[in-house]
Amino acid sequence: MKGKILEQFSAYLTKVLPLASNYGRKTDCDMVARLLESAESKPFVLVVCGEFKRGKSSVINALLKQEICQVADGIATASVSIIKYGEKQKVVRYYNATGDPDDEEITVKNEEIPFSSVGEFSQGTLTDLDNTLYLEIELPSDVLSDGLVIVDTPGIGSLDPRHLFLTRQVLPKADSILFVTDTTEPMMTTELDFIKDSILPTNKPYAMLLNKADMISRDERTEYKREREAKSSEYCGVEVDCIPVSASQWVEYNSTGDEKKWKRSNGEAVLAAIDGLYLKYREFQEDMLRQRLIQLLSDIRAEMEKSLAELLNADFETRKDVCLSELNKLRALRELISDEYSDLRKNISSIIENSQDAVLSDFTRDTALLSTEKLEQILNTPEAQSEHGGEYVVAQLNKELQLIGNGIDRKIDSAIETVLAELSEYVSGINVPGRHFSGGIDGKMASVEHSLSENFVSVTRHALPLAGIVGIGQACAVTLGIASCLPLSIAAGLYYVVESIKGNRRQEQKTHILKQVTPKINVAVNELRTYIQKRYSTFSKEVVMSLKTTSDEMTAQMQEKLKSIKECEDGIRKKLVKENELKSQMKMTDTLMTQIKVFNTNPFAK
Question: If 0-12 CB within 10 Å is exposed, 13-18 middle and 19+ buried, where does residue 316 land?
Fold first, then answer.
């Protein structure tokens, strides 16, 4: 969707903007503008996928008119390659810097590699790939110069589950999908399952290529095409367009220019299918913009109708008094929200502090028990006095810390949910004129909860390095040497102490362990307490920001009230002028909606 279509939508949006600003829909209008900008600049991402050794890489090479994706007998594509336009050849490898494919916390780094090394990092075993996640390849290709991006994926049916995982990760980022099968193998259940369970749920346009069509006769092509389409339709419940193609003949045509090979390749049908996918994708974008604009205009018109009804039924003196009253209430409440020493702000801080105190109280009780009674119980057990008593003590301490850690995030999340509910109930109980403020505060509270879920991850990382990107409780389940839930220095210290005092008397052993363990447990406890405090500190800041945003919105409402008061003072004299203005705007809105509905559509289509 380029050129005149985008220009026309942009022209429509320019006409809508003043109306949106006048009727409180500027934010919605900006969102449509961002969609329009994205439609203009976003490349068209075509993902090529299918079973391994079906010729996906060969099809891509044929499309690009050069051998970019490596093709070799017995060696399958094992990583994702993203191929896009660039002024010169360039390959950037993205890889897992931790070096462990099973590590839950992945550190992604990148490096530029020689173009000749593409095969080295796109095919082979996981060891061969050297932890490669994907390759980003830039080419000065005419095929890609208009914004086409082609993504080569690993085979979905290989023995390596990583291949299917990588392919499924790529699909949501696709704009359209080419699924490649071939004539040398019957269509497998894994292929049908992939279409049904992975491709169809994306709601992206797709087509099926029947590769290696040069290996069968023309009549057989027709039969194979019919059989693939029927099986896909029966199994997946949708119609699938299957296009016979010979990537090998296409590649030979690219190098020789032999028109017979081009005809045998059926490449023209593939290019037409890609154009069709591109058209469907652009139609989807156009329809999305159309619906957003129409919805925006409908909302604006509803506001116009409301304003017109109020104008026609207005008692100007009474309306002025009401506006003045609401203005005073808004001003008073804005002052309450803006003044950090106001009763409202104090009560909000009190609610948050009480919640934090409750969580810290439970935490203090649990850790105090761990450092005293539970530690004493562990040391008094027969297992602690056995040959492997040191390992037993460490394991039991880990279990206890794990129980505490498991409960921290859960308690904080639950407490914050309760705080949000109390804040919403508290604010809604204040006498606020109009519905916009109460609706706005509910929305802002919800956005606070959402944004914190991301902020707290970084807090956790800084507070407890073992936490990674999961919760504290989950991090405790990761085995790191002898003591998975304690910092490595604690674990090493505990092990050394326990091993060094074997054979000493029981009381000396307990005393020595207590002396060594208690300070280190206190360090871990302090880190957890700091983590709790940081989460609540971040939450408090977000609530303050939410209130500031609400105050800004109330300022805008106050300006609207002032405007209404002035209109009331103008009285009957301007009533007719305003009525005509609203009716004119409504007429223009209706005209715009009609134009947008029929723009670039077939008026004779059913």
Answer: middle
Backbone φ, ψ for residue 146 (5° rounding): -95, 15
Compute the distance between CA of residue 527 and CA of residue 68 in angstroms, rounded to an integer: 51
Distance of CA 134 to the CA centre of its chain: 19
The whole-model pTM stands at 0.52
DSSP state of 214: G
| Gap between the Cα atoms of 260 and 255, Å rounded | 13
Rounded CA-CA distance 276/128 in Å is 38
> What six digits make up the tokens of 14?
């320019």
With CA atoms as reference, report the closest residue to 203 among 237, 164, 172, 230: 172
Three-state secondary structure readout of 439-479: HHHHHHHHHHHHHHHHHHHHHHHHHCHHHCCCCHHHHCCCC
Strand residues in 63-199 grouped as ranges (E) = 80-85, 90-96, 108-113, 132-139, 148-152, 176-182
pLDDT given for residue 318 in this prediction: 79
Per-residue tokens: 81 = 């390659």
418-475: pLDDT as tens digits: 777 776 776 666 554 443 333 333 434 443 343 333 333 332 333 323 222 223 333 3
CA distance 130 to 110: 12
Q: Rounded mean pLDDT of the chain?
A: 77
Single out the residue of 69, 71, 78 nearest to residue 127, CA to CA. Answer: 78
Nearest to 109 by CA among 88, 130, 127, 126: 130
**Rounded to whole angstroms, how far apart are CA atoms 458 and 467?**
10
Distance CA 209, CA 300 (A): 47
pLDDT tens per residue across span 364-383:
888 888 888 888 888 888 88
* Mean pLDDT value across residues 38-60: 87
Q: Are 546 and 348 in contact (CB under 8 A)?
A: no
- As a residue count, the chain comes to 606
82: phi then psi, degrees, rounded to nearest 5? -105, 115
What burial class does residue 186 get, using C-beta atoms within 10 Å of its C-beta: 0-12 exposed, 13-18 middle, 19+ buried? exposed
**Are the C-beta atoms of 419 and 546 separated by less than 8 Å?**
no
Question: Over 60: is that where the pLDDT of 484 sits?
Answer: no
Q: Identify the DSSP state of 501.
A: T
CB 228 within 8 A of CB 183: no
C-beta separation of 276 from 206 below 8 A: no
Q: Give me the sheet containing 90-96, strands edge to edge.
A: 108-113, 90-96, 132-139, 80-85, 148-152, 44-50, 176-182, 206-211, 242-244
Q: Say how far apart CA 471 and CA 475 lie, in whole Å.
A: 6
Residue 43's SS3 state is coil
In whole angstroms, what is the distance from residue 202 CA to residue 175 CA? 9
**Alpha-carbon distance values, 66 to 79, 82, 143 (Å):** 19, 15, 11
3-state secondary structure of 210: strand
Biggest CA–CA distance in the chain, Å, is 103
Angle between helices 572-598 and 506-570 (to 10 degrees): 120
Quickly state the pLDDT bin for 46 (edges 50, 70, 90).
Answer: very high
Q: Rounded to the nearest 5 degrees, what angle is found at the Cα of 581, between the Cα atoms of 578 and 585?
A: 140
From the number of C-beta atoms within 10 Å of its C-beta (0-12, 13-18, 19+), residue 470 rates as middle
